[in-house]
């Protein structure tokens, strides 16, 4: 009798599992920590984990088999994994993606919508017009400063991460997928010291100008290359290039991929240093004003790792962040309660030979502020 009850329970459990290979690994759930992909995690079918028995092995970052797995430029929307296309179609047909037309991008960097669609209105809510979608993150908690850098990995990245490591300072890198493909060593430099990797699209377009399926391609391939280069971690956060998003783009990121959007509330304009739009001194003046100003809301400062000068502007400002009493933390950990990834409860965890994530210490995530 006990045997038949046991079998019945097992059959019932198996019926609830989305993939049979999950069942093989159920026993490991008793160990400390979590799988990168829990069996019932919604991203399970979008980004397949690599583990013994799954038939997937992650190629070494930078190797020919790794490189050949990703697009070299703008992703072809007719060559997407079917699971991504199905997830978009499901989200559209269930009414989760607002029917807002694409914008057209103009030379003054303000996307334009067809007549009848107000970029400032609640239906469109374009972040290029500073309309704040309530679910997006623009501010940090009081007294905190979220550290993050856009557009890497690039040749200046190692200089930045060497400094971060010397200060025991965590940071988020909003990475461009095609830059990861071109700069695997710089990617490893950021990731291996514990940098949090987030999504900044594959080829850095104005996202509101893209069709739904193009949005899926830009986000999906960036997540895929991060997933396959970090032992299976699925990023939790993204940042739109030029800060250009709206309710349609936000919904695709959230509903198809589970991504949350981190914007910013202070802009150094460091990206314009090369063209003479700003200078090291001007950035320094801005930083001192912000860092000696009110602690509410906390700061999320837009910075880039495009050039060594931009990295140096951050290094110059860093002592003032500390001397003015700011709690400086990787922005993804800061706003994500210590969880920069969707499928890992503790990014300080290590992976065993069985592909199991083991927590370093129970309090590891909450104790990281540096
Ligand atoms: Zn960017």
Automatic annotation (TrEMBL):
What EC number(s) has UniProt assigned to this enzyme? 3.5.1.41
Transmembrane region(s):
none
Going by the record, the broad EC class of this enzyme is hydrolase
Ranges for domain NodB homology come to 143-329
The protein's matches in PANTHER family, at most eight in alphabetical order, are given as: CHITIN DEACETYLASE 3, GLYCOSYL TRANSFERASE-RELATED
Q: Which GO terms describe its molecular function?
A: chitin deacetylase activity
**GO CC entries:** plasma membrane; side of membrane
Cofactor(s) recorded for this entry are: Co(2+)
Membrane topology per record? Lipid-anchor; GPI-anchor
Q: Where in the cell is it found?
A: Cell membrane
Q: Which organism is it from?
A: Guyanagaster necrorhizus
Family annotation (InterPro entries): Glyco_hydro/deAcase_b/a-brl (IPR011330), NODB_dom (IPR002509), Polysacc_deacetylase_ArnD (IPR050248)
Arranged from A to Z, the UniProt key words for this protein are: Carbohydrate metabolism, Cell membrane, Cell wall biogenesis/degradation, Chitin degradation, Cobalt, Glycoprotein, GPI-anchor, Lipoprotein, Membrane, Polysaccharide degradation, Signal
Q: Which domain of life is it from?
A: Eukaryota
Which interval of the chain is the signal sequence? 1-22
Kindly list the biological process annotations in GO that this record carries: cell wall organization; chitin catabolic process; fungal-type cell wall biogenesis; polysaccharide catabolic process
* Catalytic reactions on record: [(1->4)-N-acetyl-beta-D-glucosaminyl](n) + n H2O = chitosan + n acetate
Q: What is this protein called?
A: chitin deacetylase
């Amino acid at each position: 009798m006990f045997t038949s009850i046991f079998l019945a329970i097992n059959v019932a459990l198996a019926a609830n599992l989305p993939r049979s290979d999950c069942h093989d690994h159920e026993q490991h759930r008793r160990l400390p920590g979590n799988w990168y992909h829990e069996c019932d995690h919604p991203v399970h079918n979008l980004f397949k984990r690599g583990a013994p028995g799954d038939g997937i092995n992650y190629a070494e970052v930078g190797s020919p088999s790794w490189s050949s797995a990703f697009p070299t430029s703008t992703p072809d929307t007719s060559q997407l994994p079917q699971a991504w296309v199905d997830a978009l179609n499901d989200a559209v047909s269930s009414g989760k993606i607002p029917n807002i037309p694409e914008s057209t991008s103009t030379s003054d960097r303000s996307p334009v919508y067809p007549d009848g669609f107000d970029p400032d209105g609640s239906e469109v809510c374009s972040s290029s017009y500073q309309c704040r979608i309530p679910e997006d993150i623009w501010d940090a908690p009081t007294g905190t400063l979220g550290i993050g850098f856009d557009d890497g990995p690039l040749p200046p990245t190692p200089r930045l991460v060497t400094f971060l490591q010397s200060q025991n300072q965590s940071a988020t890198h909003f990475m461009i997928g095609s830059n990861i493909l071109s700069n695997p060593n710089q990617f490893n430099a950021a990731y291996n010291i514990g940098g949090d990797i987030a999504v900044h699209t594959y080829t850095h377009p104005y996202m509101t100008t893209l069709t739904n399926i193009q949005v899926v391609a830009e986000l999906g391939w960036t997540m895929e290359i991060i997933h396959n280069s970090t032992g299976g971690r699925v990023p939790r956060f993204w940042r739109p290039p030029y800060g250009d998003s709206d309710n349609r783009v936000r919904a695709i990121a959230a509903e198809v991929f589970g991504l949350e959007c981190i914007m910013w509330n202070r802009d150094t304009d460091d990206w314009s240093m090369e063209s003479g739009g700003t200078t090291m001194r001007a950035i320094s003046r801005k930083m001192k004003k912000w860092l000696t100003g009110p602690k509410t809301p906390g700061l999320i400062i837009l910075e880039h790792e495009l050039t060594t000068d931009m990295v140096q502007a951050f290094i110059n400002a860093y002592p003032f962040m500390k001397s003015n009493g700011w709690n400086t933390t990787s922005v993804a950990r800061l706003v994500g309660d210590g969880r920069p990834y969707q499928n890992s409860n503790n990014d300080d965890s290590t992976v065993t030979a069985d592909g199991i994530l083991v927590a370093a210490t129970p309090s590891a995530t909450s104790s990281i502020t540096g």
